[in-house]
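Annex B, item 7. Sequence and structure tokens for protein A, then protein B.
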Amino acid sequence: MSVSPAPIPNEYLDLRGTPCPLNFVRTKLYLEKMPPGSLLEVWLDPGEPIEQVPDSLTMSGYQVENIINHAEYFSLLVRRPVAL
């Protein structure tokens, strides 16, 4: 059985130090400018940002594919759906 490689993001967005809900708004606006099906990696602070942003994106119709804890920040892989 082979393991498929991790998907490579099309774009990166560093929102460390950005408060809620501004980080969600900036992520959503950035995703809206990307082509459908694109993958965005967002860097978020621990605490409220990583607790709130993934759920807000999911409720808005975006697909959160992965969340990785890098100790000092989290990276969130989110895909813009083909049809929203």
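Protein B:
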Amino acid sequence: MGAADSAELARFSVAVPEDLLHEYDALIARRGEARNRSEAIRDLMRAALVQDSLRTPDEQVIGSLTMIYDHHTGDLTRRLDEIQHDFTAEIVSTMHVHLDHHNCLEILALKGLGSRVYELADRLLGLRGVKHGELTCAATGASLDI
């Protein structure tokens, strides 16, 4: 039994829309990956920690950042633009797709020092109104004269 297995359990509450909870419970049941909701949440937490440990902040990286967001959320579009303007050296290209009246898909091609690329992704994905986002990144092991 590892140190994490013998740790005391901490209880906390999470507020989610009821339909999301029902869909997640159905996913858990379909996959059979966990016996209960708590174990499924622990699995998500562990996966996020593993993903974070794979970051290479001191290396040159290339990658893509994909976001889906509701452009009607407050001043989200302005905040997305402001942040992106702070990272023009890391953003190689962007693609913007209008999915429907409210939702947009934005894909950013990125390259640069890992710490800057991760900071950009964290800042964008942390904005209220960004519904989904994913950074896919790889260290190049070389200079970025691509």
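Comment on protein B: The domain at 60-139 is CATH 3.30.70.1150 (Alpha-Beta Plaits).
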